[in-house]
What we know:
Radius of gyration: 38 Å
Shape: elongated
CATH superfamily of one domain: GAF domain
CATH class of one domain: Alpha Beta
Low-confidence stretches: 1-11, 226-250, 252-292
CATH topology of one domain: Beta-Lactamase
Number of strands: 5
CATH architecture of one domain: 2-Layer Sandwich
Number of helices: 10
Largest sheet: 5 strands, antiparallel
Strand content: 5-15%
Amino acid sequence: MTTRGSDEVVRVDADASLDTLIHTLTHHAARTLGVDASACAAATVRGCDRWLSAASVAVARCDAVQDRLRLGPRYLVRSTGAPAVVADVAADDRWPVWSHACRVQGFRSALVVPGTYGDVTVHLSLYSPGTPDWEGVTPRALGLAHGIAAVVAARDEVIELAHTMDDLLAGSRSRVVLDRAVGIVMAQRGCDATEAIAHLKAVSATGDAREVAAALVAAATPPGDADGPGDADGPDAPPAGAGRSAEPGAREPEAGLVDQRDATSPGAGRAHATGAPATVGGGSGGVHPDAA
């Protein structure tokens, strides 16, 4: 998301705060549960796996080993939905690659628990260099995993709402163009608004209705209307005093001289260099536009 407006800044701050909360809950999970261990967390959202956080590099390496072959206690919990305790990593031969990684990193036992909130399932894994009472820790670990899943679901909801808001803002900006396109279709086809909208939908069945409406409005807008109707100060506006009769005895400028001078230099001094008179006449004593 961008940070160009105050609403985007608020959404980015909300995302960052929830990410920080997820990391804090995972980093301090072992302390919260009162065990000598390191924790990491991964999530499954609508069938897609997502890495969340880890308290140390060692525990992250052990947990990541499971993803190569999709074998390990986390995948066992994912398939059964029940907590998994590995009381002695060295004696467990179910996942030799994962067990070897745990021994290399100095871990002797592990606990993996699931926590589900809505479409989010978090797998909280705790690795210990000792053999704590995992059975006594499991109920509280389940509650902690559920809390982390709730935070992940809240973060996803914030992101989804932000995308919805962006779509609504984009739609409101294009509403004016769509209304103009409906009016153009009504005028061209002699129909009412309902039929005009149906026609636009049919034309844009294979594309974006906003692009079709913008093209229709652009095609119906004459090129000369870029500055708006009735713009007397545009580049094609006649010079001041044009159309008024000159005073008796006043010299008329040579044909095309004023336009030629205006095209070459807007300065008043060029009028004297080319011999053009300073005034173009008019009973009110009007001066040349460049001298005004």
